[in-house]
Structures are given as C-alpha cells and as structure tokens.
Amino acid sequence: MAADPLPARTRTILAEITDMLVSVVGDEILLVGEITCATTFNDDLALESIEFVALAELLQQRYGPSVDFLGLLAEKDIDQILAMTVGELAAHIDRVTLADQACAS
User: Fold this and answer.
1) What residue numbers bound the domain in which 100 lies?
2) In the chain, N or C terminus with fewer CB closer than 10 Å?
3) Is residue 1 assigned to a domain?
4) How far apart are CA 105 and CA 77, in angstroms?
5) SUPFAM superfamilies given for it (predicted)?
6) pTM of the model
C-alpha cells in the first residue's frame, strides 16, 4: 500500500471541507466523485455564489474569523476564483490556523 502523500492535518481539513460542502449543497455533491485537493469549486462542483457564502459561514464557525474565505476570494481575479481548488482552501486554512496557534502559544 502506497503512503498517503497528504499530511494528516491536510486530510483532516479536506474531510471537514467535504462535510461542509455536503451540508451546504446536499449529498448529490458526492455524485461528482471523491472530493480531493485537485477538485475545483467551479468546474467540478459548480458551486453557486450563495453556496460560497454558506461555506464561508461554516468555515468561520469551525476555524474562526481569521480563515475569512470571502476575503481570500476577494484577493483573487476571476480566473483564479474559477480555477480555485479545494486543496488551495485546505492549504489556506492550514496556514491560518497554524499561525493562530503560534500566536496563542
């Protein structure tokens, strides 16, 4: 069995994002297949803007206000937003929450 290339922390964040997406969109989102770091919000998941807002709320409830998903989107141009992957979001959450933990120490 090959080793999972994702660190445990990233796998956990990815699973939590997947659960949030199911909560926002419904179980039918799983029909697209497994949600991975390479899954795009636009092409693969076809998220609507209202679903982005709902996801942002769930992310802030789970990880705190420093995650600021809508702020992250605001920093991107339209092509970057359309190409954004679940992995990019997971990496952002990982970075921000690690920084928060370091500041709290």
Assistant:
1) 8-104
2) N
3) no
4) 35
5) ACP-like (SSF47336)
6) 0.85
Q: What digits encode the pLDDT tens for the residues 53-98?
A: 999 999 999 999 999 998 998 999 999 999 999 999 999 999 898 7
| pLDDT beyond 90 at 17 | yes
Domain count, the chain: 1
Q: Is residue 37 part of a domain?
A: yes
DSSP letters spanning the chain: -PPPSS-HHHHHHHHHHHHHHHHHH-GGGGGG----TT-BTTTTT---HHHHHHHHHHHHHHH-GGG-HHHHHHTS-HHHHHH-BHHHHHHHHHHHHHHHHHHH-
What CATH number has the domain bearing residue 87?
A: 1.10.1200
What is the token pair recorded at 62? 């789970």
